[in-house]
Structure to design on (489 residues):
């Protein structure tokens, strides 16, 4: 009772260790930021006096003084004698400091008291301190280095702690999403025309039908037509493959009821059934399909694979699609003039509604296309087909009232020809075609403005009308006739 077609890098260089206060050995490069010392040459002193200090030099080396822009002053006799004895020279006196002011004559000096303020660092002043001051300043520098090392150690410790925190994770408890309070109850008013709004409106009117026969069981869907239990569905859902069976309806509110068949029409694949001893159901609202445009949004509701109340959405992909459904291949009795949709339709959706954005039923879901070898149950590939509600409403009314329904007919037997169209093989005597002047061998190419490509196209076009409708038939490429369609059971 399923409605499917068979288918289917390098190591870092370690710095050479050096003894504090001694010049680097030959060929060694001092660490970055330490002035390089060369024998027998004066070193450049930094412009900032706070960064300068005199270091006693080993025997045989000259003292390291400040490099000056003016010519260097000659040693005094005392300094020369001291140099000859291998003693370092520190300047004129322990209590005085000798400054060579920038811009002075080569041999000019200025005397400053021991506690006189230091000249500005920006003056590029050359400095040659006395021995005690050199020792004090060296000690100050060592203390400053120690302080700097302490600060760096603190900073390093802080960085290490931060990295450890980042990689080790916070062990202290913190607020997570699980600790957040539950929000207030959401009042979700579905926007008009949304799938949610359509589902809320239509779901109470959709039924799951279950057929149990001697050959097995199957499911389908149906649409509530009345409060007292009339239901519209597909003929192939309730036919039981001709073996009869037990039919049960399960409604949206959870109630179930036995169902009996009121009338069936295999040619249109429609049926009306009635659930007994039940009331208070919600009838569906029926719309119209004649002015439904291609691309219009639609919603399909049903029980695919037994999953009742399933909602899918899509659009109208095409209209007036000739489709065989629910019958044997090659039989004109099952040709439908179908709406095509990409809303997911699967076995079990058969008989359920296809609705527009207003929640009005515009089609009865009946068939799907499934390519393959026909092994197992088919599934949706985005090609679903529904009987237009305009046709289904007329048939359902007749089935409810009379237990049977009539179909429109032109009164011809047709087949395929060498060209696109429906080839008339035989004209039924006294029928609409004969009365309109259609003859054997004519090739029907249009019904009104609808092109006819093959025999199925003609059957679908005729059955889209009601008996008594007047249509224009085009023969070949230029001949047209008017015909009034008849009805037959």
């Amino acid at each position: 009772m399923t409605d499917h077609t068979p288918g289917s890098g390098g190591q870092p260089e370690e710095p050479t260790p050096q003894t504090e206060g001694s010049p680097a050995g030959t060929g060694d490069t001092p660490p970055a930021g330490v002035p390089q010392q060369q024998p027998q040459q004066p070193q450049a002193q930094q412009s900032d006096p706070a960064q300068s200090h005199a270091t006693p030099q080993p025997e045989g080396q000259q003292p390291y003084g400040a490099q000056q822009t003016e010519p260097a002053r000659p040693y005094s006799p005392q300094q020369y004698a001291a140099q000859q004895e291998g003693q370092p020279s520190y300047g004129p006196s322990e209590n005085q400091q000798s400054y060579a002011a920038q811009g002075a004559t080569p041999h000019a000096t200025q005397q400053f008291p021991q506690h006189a303020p230091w000249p500005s660092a920006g003056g590029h002043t050359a400095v040659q301190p006395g021995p005690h001051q050199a020792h004090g300043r060296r000690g100050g520098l060592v203390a400053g280095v120690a302080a700097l090392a302490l600060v760096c150690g603190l900073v390093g410790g802080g960085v290490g702690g931060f990295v450890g925190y980042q990689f080790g994770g916070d062990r202290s408890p913190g607020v997570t999403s699980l600790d957040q309070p539950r929000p207030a109850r959401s009042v979700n008013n579905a926007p008009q025309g949304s799938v949610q709004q359509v589902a809320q409106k239509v779901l109470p009117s959709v039924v799951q039908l279950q057929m149990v026969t001697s050959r097995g069981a199957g499911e389908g869907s149906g649409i509530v037509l009345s409060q007292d239990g009339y239901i519209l569905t597909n003929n192939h859902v309730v036919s039981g493959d001709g073996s009869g069976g037990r039919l049960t309806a399960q409604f949206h509110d959870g109630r179930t009821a036995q169902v009996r068949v009121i009338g069936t029409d295999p040619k249109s694949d429609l049926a009306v059934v009635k659930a007994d001893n039940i009331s208070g159901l919600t009838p569906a609202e029926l719309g119209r399909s004649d002015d439904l445009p291609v691309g219009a949004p639609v919603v399909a509701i049903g029980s695919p694979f037994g999953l009742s109340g399933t909602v899918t959405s899509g659009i109208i992909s095409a209209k007036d699609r000739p489709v065989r459904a629910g019958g044997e291949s090659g039989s004109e009795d099952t040709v439908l003039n179908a709406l095509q949709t990409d809303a997911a339709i699967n076995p079990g959706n058969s008989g359920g509604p296809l609705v527009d954005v207003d929640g009005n039923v515009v089609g009865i879901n009946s068939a799907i296309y499934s390519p393959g070898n026909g092994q197992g149950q088919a599934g949706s590939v985005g090609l679903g087909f529904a009987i237009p509600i305009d046709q289904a409403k007329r048939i359902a009314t007749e089935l409810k009232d009379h237990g049977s329904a009539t179909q429109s007919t032109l009164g011809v037997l047709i087949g395929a020809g060498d060209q696109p169209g429906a080839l008339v093989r035989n004209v039924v005597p006294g029928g609409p075609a004969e009365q309109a002047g259609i003859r054997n061998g004519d090739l029907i190419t249009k019904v009104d403005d609808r092109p006819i490509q093959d025999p199925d196209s003609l059957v679908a076009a005729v059955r889209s009308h009601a008996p008594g409708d007047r249509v224009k038939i085009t023969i070949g490429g230029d001949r047209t006739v008017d015909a009034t369609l008849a009805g037959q059971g």
Q: What stands out?
A: Residues 1-165, 327-331 have pLDDT under 50 and may be disordered. The longest strand covers residues 310-324. The helical segments are 77-84, 131-168, 195-202, 235-238, 389-402, 432-436, 455-463. The CA atoms of residues 121 and 204 lie 92 Å apart.
